Amino acid sequence: MSTTTRLMNADPQQVWAVLSNGWSYSDWVVGTVHIRDVAPDWPAVGTRIHHKAGPWPFSLKDSSTVLSCEPGRDLLLKVRLWPLGAGTVRITLQEVGPRATRVTMVEEFTDGPMLGVRNALGDTLLHYRNREALRRLEDLAVGHTSDASTPVAVRSGRS
Fold first, then answer.
1. Could you tell me what percentage of the chain is helix, strand and coil, using 3-state DSSP and rounding each to the nearest 5?
2. What H or E segment, with its residue span, contains residue 14?
3. How does pLDDT run along the chain (159 residues), one tens digit per residue?
4. Which residue in 4, 39, 59, 143 has a CA-CA distance of 20 to 30 Å to 119?
5. Nearest CA to 29 among 135, 149, 147?
6. CA proximity to 154, closest of 102, 89, 90, 94
């Protein structure tokens, strides 16, 4: 399991605005190159984003499904990229001050061949990928503000 945390210079509503826009996923989810379709009521439980990941001509088409959702606070996804495997990603938002949100992303492989890399090395690789994803997510969320001139501290960790 890989856990990555970032303190963002945006309030939870700004971060949630990006998370709840399924069409934005290829803008911040590292490795996702194209969104093919998004359920109209995304991110309601059971809805899906259909995506393509990886470089052409090796791109894989699959989907991610919402397992649970607490708007503005928590999103749990079942992510798939067959034939490589599947996993879960939980993104939690915690307001820690004015225009400051602690965002935590926990990802782990649950099915398929990628279970073979569910170890310290695999967790480290996921951590670095997710650190970049959270950096991109913050860039998009901060774009929803009118005054984003003062950055907040950043902390990332792996477990």
1. 25, 40, 35
2. helix 12-19
3. 889 999 999 999 999 999 999 999 999 999 899 999 999 999 999 999 999 988 888 888 899 999 999 999 999 999 987 777 788 999 999 999 989 999 999 998 888 766 666 666 667 778 888 999 999 999 999 986 544 444 444 434 433
4. 59
5. 135
6. 102
Position of tokens 């991109």?
A: 136
Q: DSSP letter at 48?
A: E
What is the pTM for the complete model shown? 0.84
The secondary structure element, H or E, covering residue 70 is strand 60-70
Q: What are the beta bridge partners of residue 48?
A: 65
Query: For residues 29-53, b (16+ Cβ closer than 10 Å) or e, as one string?
Result: beebeebeebbeebbeeebbbebbb
Alpha helices in 25-142 (DSSP H): 25-28, 120-142
Please give the Cα distance from 43 to 56 (Å, whole number).
28
Tokens 């492989």 locate to: 109
